[in-house]
Amino acid sequence: MSSAPADSGLWSLELLHEIQPAEGAPGELMKPNDITMTADGLVLVAEEGDAHVKVFDANGAFVRRIGRRGSGPGEFQGAWIAARGDTLLVQDPMAGRASSFRISDGTYLLPRATSCCYWAPLGVDGAGRAVMPASHSPPDTTREAATFIRTAFGSAEADTVFVWHRRVPSGPDYQWEVNNGDRLQMVMSVPLQPREVVVADLRGGFITAWNAEYLLRVTRDGSDTAALFGRVFSPLSVSGAEKQAIVDARVASMTSSSGGPPEATLRTSFDPAKIPGVRPPFERFWVDLTGRVWARRSLADTTVAEFDLFGPTREWLDVVRVPAAIWPSAEWTSAAWGTNRVAVPAEDDDGRPVVRVFRIVRKGAE
To answer: Please, which residues have CB within 8 angstroms of residue 241's CB and are 6 or more apart in sequence?
Structure first.
């Protein structure tokens, strides 16, 4: 457990450029759904709707389009993506199938059966395999686990791994239920409630955490503990006004487009009393291509996105801050962490999609 950052004030994320081709241009961004980055800085963006993947070079110029909507070879209905070398893997949760493509020319390579109906980002583990969330039930139904399918990028070989949870969020206090009359319409987790976070580890198997405490576990096979790391922190309280603001923001996001539940129904369902009185230390975390871990802090301050940076050897290096105006606010938004860059999808002031690319900088480094 680190009590102070080893490189305090030395690390930063600096906006490098924005990817936003002109309207009507071949690379125009429509509705980015997922994003990944190669070691040499290529940015790949999966589009929702007219399913395909757009490839941009390290300077942000459009290079090519890969795939298309459909159910045949090299086609997909939806796309969650990961890249390794010159190979792109596209997981289609609608079809329960993943397809490989050569990034350099868009050539379709091969398919493999995966898991359907799980819409979530992919990862890459220490063996260079794509790791995708799956819906398979664990062999021990008395315990909770996150299930993943692991597959090589260049072959159809695959296996299934279960990453066992250390703690399980359960009970009515963890959920908001939205009802339409006497019919349950949807269930969602209450904001700020503790949860298990599981991420594929580029230096091995997985990193997991119960985010009510600042202790991350490195596991090789989903059941062992190879290492523990974290930092000392003081819990931040959540006021009644903050809880109400969280409810207001969630209601606004769900009523901004037609077809959702009425505002009155949402306000009845979203009980602010279920929101915890203290914040979890972090919302989620990512592993970049060097093995560094970026944990986004949970803060009441909406003007800044703040990250705790841990090095490849798991020591706490620094606290890195980015203006919230140029970083996605939703914690589930995809982010592509490369070797010395990170790319995130966002919207400009006019509501047009844009991908912002930041440089990862350490002062004094060559």
So the answer is: none
- pLDDT digit string, tens, across residues 120-174: 999 999 999 999 999 888 888 888 899 999 999 999 999 999 999 887 666 667 8
User: How far apart are the C-alpha atoms of 331 and 308, rounded to whole Å?
Assistant: 15
Task: Determine the Cα–Cα distance for residues 274 and 112; give it in Å rounded to an integer.
Answer: 42
**Alpha carbon distances (Å) from 79 to 52, 98, 143, 314:** 7, 9, 30, 32
Q: Examine residue 332 and state whether it is found in any structural domain, yes or no.
A: yes
Q: How far is residue 36 from each of residues 118, 308, 351, measured CA to CA in Å?
A: 18, 21, 22
Domain range spanning residue 123? Answer: 11-164+195-238+276-362
In a domain, 251, yes or no: no
- Residue 254: its H or E element: helix 240-255
**Mean pLDDT of all residues in the chain?**
93
Question: Under a CB-based contact definition with an 8 Å cutoff, are residues 86 and 64 in contact?
Answer: no
CA atoms within a 13 Å half-sphere pointing along the CA-CB vector of 77:
10
Q: Where residue 310 sits, what CATH number does that domain have?
A: 2.120.10.30
pLDDT of 236 reads 93
pLDDT digits (tens, 9 = 90+) for 237-291: 999 999 999 999 999 988 876 667 889 999 999 999 999 999 999 999 999 999 9
What are the angstrom distances between the C-alpha of 90 and each of 75, 94, 264?
A: 10, 12, 39
pLDDT given for residue 241 in this prediction: 95
In the numeric block, which tokens belong to residue 283? Answer: 């919302």
Q: d(Cα 123, Cα 294) in Å, to the nearest integer?
A: 14
